[in-house]
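ugh ok fine here u go
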Amino acid sequence: MASERQTAANRRNAKKSTGPRSASGKKRSSQNAHRHGLTKPVSSADFGEQLENLARQIAGDLDDIATLALARVAAEAQLQLSRVKQVKKSLIERAMSLAGSTAPATFDRRQRKCGGSLLRSIGAKAPAEAGPLRQLC
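structure:
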C-alpha cells in the first residue's frame, strides 16, 4: 500500500500529465489507436445505406423477410471484403512510396511471392527492390 507521501507525489505528478495541449497534438493523439479502421462494424450507420442498397440488389425481386435477412448478411460480408481490399491497397501504396526514400533491399524469394501476389491483386507490377514490402509479408 502506498504511503501518504507517495500518494501526494503521485497526485502532483498526475497534475503535470495533462496530455497534448495544442490543436495539432490533440489531433495526432486522437489517432493513436487507429491502425486500419477494419474493426468498425459494417452494420454501423456509416455503412447503413450502402448495406441496404447492396442487400436489395442481392435479394432481387424477392421481398420476404428471410431472403432480405440473408441478403443483408451477404451484403455485409461483401462490404467487409471491399474494405479489406482497400486497406491492403493503401498499405501497398504506402510501402511503395516509402521504397524510394529507404535504402534499397533485394527482393528475396519470400518477398517476391508475398509482395508480388499483393501487388497483382491491385493490378500493380512488382518492383525490383521493395524494402518496405517486408513489413507486409
